[in-house]
Amino acid sequence: MTSQLINAILLGGYYTVLAIGLAFMYSVMNVINLAHGALIILAAFGLLVLSSIFAIPLYLAIVIMICVMFGLGLFLHRFVLSKASQGGELLPLLATFGMAIILDNLMFQAFGADSNSLAPLVGDLSWASFELPGNIYIGQISVYILMAAIATIIALEWLLNRTDLGRRIQATSQDRATASLLGIDTGRTLAIATGIALATGVLAAAALGLRSAWGPYDGSAQLLFAFEAVVIGGLGSMWRVMAGAMILAIAQSIGAMIHPQGFLICGHLAFLAAVFIRLGGNGFSLPGLLGKGAQT
Amino acid sequence: MNTTAKLTVTRGGATANMTMIAIIIAVVALAATPWVFGVGGSGRAVALLVYVLLAVMWNALAGFAGLVSIGQTLFFGTAAYATIRLADAGVDPYLAILIAIAFGAALGWITSLFMLSLKDGEFAIGMWVLSSLAHLCVNLDPLIQGETGTSLISLNAYDIQTRSMITLWMALGITIAVFVILVVLLRSRTGAAITAIRDDEIGARSIGVNVMKTKRIVFVLAAAGTAAAGALWLASASNFQPRAFFGVQWTAYMLFMVLVGGLGRIEGAIIGAVLFFVIETFFAAYGAWYLVGLGAVAVFFALFLPKGVWGWIGPRLPGEAIPTGYIVEKSNT
Hints:
By secondary structure, chain A is an all-alpha fold. Chain A has a single domain, classed as ABC transporter involved in vitamin B12 uptake, BtuC (Orthogonal Bundle). Chain A has 12 helices and 2 strands; from the N terminus they run ααααββαααααααα. Chain A has a two-stranded antiparallel sheet. In chain A, helix 9 (219-233) packs across helix 10 and helix 9 (219-233) runs parallel beside helix 11. Chain B has a single domain (8-332), classed as ABC transporter involved in vitamin B12 uptake, BtuC (Orthogonal Bundle). By secondary structure, chain B is mainly α. Chain A binds chain B through residues 26, 30-32, 34, 80, 83-84, 87, 89-91, 93-95, 97-102, 104-106, 108-109, 220, 223-224, 227-228, 231, 259, 261, 264-265, 268-269, 271-272, 275-276, 278-279, 292-293, 296, and chain B through 62, 66, 68, 70, 114-115, 117-122, 124-126, 128-130, 132-133, 136-137, 139-140, 202, 248, 251-252, 255, 259, 263, 288-289, 291-292, 294-296, 298-299, 302-303, 306.
């Protein structure tokens, strides 16, 4: 039981890394990027190509891909999101969904339907484990992923609250027109924010590839996990997202204990429960998201 | 400048009459397919009608009520599953289809109670979560055998000629019924509220439109229409594999048809469905590349031609093709 709980929390660490980029874009731009999952899968293929074909060490491949995805984020904002958001709130959804379909199928054409993994690249580490008291073994990689999740959140919170760029991002997300009047280049700021969101996706891609295997069409499942973590936790701070990711992982693990197919079902039910709680509107419900709802 | 302006308010006109004639010709042609093109032709005709249903319903949802749903497969797949279940319990397959549509509407109403409280993007993926949940639960049913699926065996009680004719005429009848309900709804008081929400939701609310109630009406209608499409697709394909009914490709099709045809116009949705039908006929064999192309065209329209094909044709015609609004003309006396 303890061991299952610990493993669920470690899985929650993966969902945290997965959800950070989605939550960041949602809170800054009020856009849910439906291509989030597909872009993570794209980053995972990028890591695989760099390290297996060009024989670049994985940590270096991660650094390169972070730069690539950051650049792709700038591009995405400049040519898709900024244009789509002029046409109302629905078009960014439609455009990013269309992008997800394009990416999924292009990756299928390029890499085939096989499942891929980054685990062989790190040798012994992929099965190495820590032993905890009480004969509990936990995978080292999962622990590092959880640590990466926490480090990413600390870095993002620092960026948002302590740096000039962060203040520009916050100002732009709160009131674009006023921020622009105050001399902030809002287009550039949002492009950088998109770049940051996509760059965090590289960590998610590395985590996915090291923990398990992926195929070209796995983006939508990752998107759903990330989205569920965001809704369960609520926006407001990245720590809430992390809490949501943990609750999602624990619900899934309980589901898996009940029935072999229960893993995903219980995750979805946890999402539904979060929606109901929010409807109830009592104190326990997620004020961050409620606050967002009240603005309209 | 002291002349009194005389206002004439009209609805319809030459364009609407022409459209009516075109629709009647199309309906007669579709109804006659079994005698002209046989069983295969009827199957294609049902596919076209299913696309029209899906496009018109998704357009009503996204274009009129401002609700982008990535998970309308919830209703599409569940209705097909309900048909299988009912037929297995001994209900005539065609009666089962009708019950499944009512079931879809009921499911839509229940879902609307909590999903409509979510905002844009959250609603969009939230519906996808529900669809995925329904898919997983359907897979648990021993009758379906997971992804293996099953067939609508009781259709074999009818010989293949009769079966294809009944399915086609039923599809035609249901599509016309849904279409008439939508047009009547749009021309009613609720229609004025729907159009107001489409144009400016906050503005509509401020002049006293009950936004939630209006959205719920559209959502339930869209659920029923999408359910009808799912049940009819099953009757036509006769195999039920969960993945083929709950798959995200259906959402991509709906998005393509509505974006290309023109978001927010019924005429656009119909044109989008016909275009999609033609494209699918010629390019579906290209598999993944075909989907890449559909996605690319949809993104192109979303970014550069958000009003779609009808956004170009519509304003060039006198009056409305499918009259849902009023035309006010001012003449000085």
